[in-house]
Amino acid sequence: MSDFRNRPNGNYIFEANWQELYVLTKHWKSDLLFYRDDLKFLDHLIDKYFIWLSKKENIDQVREIEVSLVETDKLCSTLLLQVNKHLSHLAGLMEDPFKYDSHKFRTEHQILEDKLAGFVKTFRDNRKKVFAVTEHVIESEKLEHLIID
């Protein structure tokens, strides 16, 4: 998943010092916290219009995206746990460079980065779908009067 890397290409992970990887990982955590909040917003957006739906087609579309949002939220929570554990290991490595196997740790760092890239791709896809479904539902159910809030 090279379309969302927060680092230079090449061997950066295997050449960067622990502090640089720590800063990069802190950025990942910050991004994940933002995505978690945005997922809550998207879920709220769906919930706001769901109760007004009357067409089965629209109900099915909204349920499908709601399930996808729940799965994405679970993935976000899992990644946050992994990033926090990773930060803890990085802090340990900065204190004692021989605490963990350096090569193994850097490989795990790269795998975690790839998971984050996959998550971001899924998140962005879900976000587009939520807005598309919401727009479709508002138009097809004649719910324009609810947008005033």
Which structural traits does this protein have?
78% helix, 4 helices, 149 residues
SSE topology:
Elements (H helix, E strand, L loop, with lengths): L11 H4 L2 H33 L5 H40 L6 H39 L9
Our Rg estimate from Cα atoms comes to 20 Å
Distance between the termini: 39 Å
Helix content estimate: over 70%
Mean pLDDT: 83
Q: Which ranges are low-confidence, i.e. pLDDT below 50, for 5 or more consecutive residues?
A: 1-5
Quote the beta fraction.
Answer: under 5%
Whole-number tally of structural domains: 1
What spatial form do the alpha-carbon principal axes imply?
Answer: elongated
Structural class: mainly alpha
Please give the count of helices.
4
Describe the structure in your own words.
It is a single chain. The chain is an all-alpha fold and 149 residues long. It has one domain. It has helices at 12-15, 18-50, 56-95, 102-140. Helix 2 packs parallel to helix 4 (102-140) and helix 3 runs antiparallel to helix 4. The longest helix is centred in the middle third of the chain and has 40 residues, at 56-95. The radius of gyration is 20 Å and the shape is elongated.
